[in-house]
Amino acid sequence: MENQMAETTQKRKRPYPKPVSLANLRPSRPRYDEPKARRELLVTPDGWRGFKALAKAHGLSLGEFAERIGRGIIPLGTPAGGAK
Predict the structure, then answer these.
(1) Of 4, 19, 57, 61, which has the highest C-beta tally within 10 A?
(2) Per residue in 37-65, pLDDT tens?
(3) H helices within the chain, ranges in order?
(4) Over the range 48-70, which residues count as b (16 or more CB within 10 Å of their CB) and which as e?
(5) For residue 55, which of 39, 43, 69 has the smallest C-alpha distance?
(6) How far apart (Å, rounded) are the C-alpha atoms in residues 82 and 11?
(7) Dihedral sign, CA of 67, 72, 77, 79?
(8) What is the CB-side half-sphere exposure of residue 24 using CA atoms within 13 A?
């Protein structure tokens, strides 16, 4: 039984970070005319859950979803008061 637990534990170990994840950070051809940079924002838990659900519904990662909103590829409605 102890040997079986050791095998199970060994199977779960993965290199961190995963090589595939590192490759995704450096795409072979850029999607846009400038490199992406790490950003930070503060949101409520409800707001974050909603943002994640919207990104998932569009089939996009959180970063790509934010990128497309910011670039106007995914348009948002007119703000209240008509301000732009």
Answers:
(1) 61
(2) 899 999 999 999 999 999 999 999 999 99
(3) 2-12, 19-25, 45-57, 62-70
(4) eeebeeebeeeebeeebbbbebe
(5) 69
(6) 57
(7) positive
(8) 8
CA gap 43, 45 in Å, rounded: 7
Return the pLDDT at 51.
Answer: 97
The CA-atom distances, in angstroms, between 71 and each of 55, 68, 82 are 15, 5, 19
How high is the pLDDT of residue 84?
54
17: three-class secondary structure by DSSP:
coil
Residue showing tokens 């659900």: 53
- Mean pLDDT for 14-19 is 64
Contact yes or no for 32/21 (Cβ under 8 A): no
Write phi, then psi, for 83 (nearest 5 degrees): -70, 150
Structure tokens at 43: 């949101």
Distance CA 54, CA 9 (A): 36
